[in-house]
Design goal:
By secondary structure, this protein is an alpha/beta fold. 44% of the residues lie in helices and 16% in strands. Helix 4 crosses helix 15 and helix 14 packs across helix 15. It is elongated.
Length: 422
């Protein structure tokens, strides 16, 4: 039996009961359909790929996909589903590709240089590439849906406002945005809440964007800076961290939140927005095995929500609210994926064919991870005690929603503060 026949036999045996809608095309043009109406086509451009199918080396096949030696055609949702089935049936690991959370970044040593390099591999692709499929504010984090049918621009504007309401921002307050991205949140806080502040990023491309577009904004400052270099800063009224601690590392969460606690003034507010894993048994990295670690998000680590809350509490801050937004991120990623697919040629021209192929699989794969409950996203509000007493807070969560203007919430907070001082 030839190597080609052995591959066909192995895939056929693995899917004897429910064949995938797959056509496998070899380098010489020969094709084999595993079902009567295949919707996904995998083309092998080299005979060397056959041994990866036989040995179940899915990571090597992923590398071949990125290089273009393995070509995949078909609707992206069907491509993803077929890829997962193949990983489950012929992969060397018993656990499914997407469910396997342990293959990436296991509590590895971290320093400023390696962290900066990891961040730049993910973000310093091309600002114009991200602009193709992000919203108009270039917000690269989970959006917030009130109905579920909003477009991405509306949903991201709602997210920015939702965070600002949770921060109880007032005019003139000083806000620190750790991992500010392309500046959308800090800019929104300045425009809608008259806040001032500092945003930091480790991405050179993001910093170039900020210098070009935000440098003239009064009261706002953007820096190319590691969060660990904030130790000597003056105190802030508010601190926000959105999609940042995924870069920090689980072992460094304690020092990360301790730094934030030192930077906050007494009575100050932290909103931390980040991805968490569903498995409470221990920290894991991003799902997708070696593919994401090698090609998308090097060095990423994710905690369980219990670890996040513990480290915030140990820093001396008081956790007062936790909101799970898992369905919101699944929807956000789906919209991003659709927008990227619609501008395939432009994306390829801006970032290259390899980068397009990576993101084409990465975005819907992450959407599946959230939709399936393997990952979630949590917004945590924490207050810094004042004068040895717990910080004042509004009586209800009404201040977080549109039916109560922020001014009413801050007024109720002042009234509560006055009661505490009696």
């Amino acid at each position: 039996m030839s190597l080609r026949q052995r591959v066909l036999s192995r895939i056929g045996r693995s899917f004897a009961e429910a064949p995938p809608p797959l056509r496998l095309v070899f380098w010489d043009g020969e094709a084999f359909d595993f079902s009567p109406a295949p919707v996904v086509t995998i083309t092998l451009r080299s005979p060397s790929l056959l041994r990866f199918f036989l040995t179940g080396q899915m990571a090597r096949l992923g590398d071949a996909y990125v290089r273009g030696d393995l070509v995949v055609d078909g609707p992206v949702e069907e491509v993803l589903a077929t890829g997962i089935r193949l990983a489950e049936r012929i992969g060397r690991k018993a656990s499914p590709l997407i469910k396997s959370l342990a293959a990436l970044g296991r509590l590895r040593p971290r320093d400023k240089k390696s962290d900066a390099a990891n961040v730049r591999r993910h973000y310093d692709v091309s600002n114009d590439f991200y602009a193709l499929w992000l919203d108009r504010t270039m917000t690269y984090s989970c959006a917030y849906f009130r109905r579920g049918d909003e477009d991405i621009d509306t949903a991201q504007a709602q997210k920015l406002d939702h965070i600002c309401r949770k921060l109880l921002l007032e005019p003139g307050q000083r806000l620190l945005d750790i991992g500010c991205g392309w500046g959308g949140l800090l800019s929104y806080a300045a425009d809608s809440y008259q806040a001032t502040g500092i945003g930091i990023t480790n991405s050179a491309a993001q910093y170039d964007y900020l210098r070009a577009r935000m440098s003239a904004r009064p009261g706002l400052e953007f820096r190319l800076q590691d969060y660990r270099d904030l130790a000597e800063e003056a105190a802030f009224d508010r601190v926000v961290s959105v999609g940042m601690y995924e870069h920090v590392g689980v072992r460094r969460l304690k020092s990360y939140f301790s730094l934030i606690a030192r930077l906050l003034r007494p009575g100050g507010v932290l909103v931390n927005h980040g991805i968490v894993i569903a498995d409470p048994k221990g920290p894991r990295a991003l799902p997708g095995g070696e593919f994401i670690d090698r090609h998308v998000f090097p060095g990423g680590e994710l905690p369980h929500i219990s670890r996040v809350l513990k480290e915030i509490a140990l820093s001396g801050l008081e956790v007062v609210d936790v909101e799970d937004l898992r369905p919101h991120y699944a929807r956000t990623l789906t919209l991003w994926s659709q927008r990227l697919e619609a501008r395939r040629d432009e994306a390829t021209a801006l970032a290259g064919a390899e980068r397009y192929r990576i993101w084409r699989i990465y975005l819907p794969g992450m959407a599946l991870a959230f939709d399936s409950g393997w990952l979630s996203i949590a917004q945590v509000i924490a207050y810094k005690p004042s004068g040895g007493r717990p910080a004042a807070r509004p009586w209800t969560r009404a201040y977080q929603y549109r039916d109560e203007p922020p001014a009413m919430a801050t007024a109720s907070l002042r009234a509560h503060t006055n009661l505490l001082q009696l």
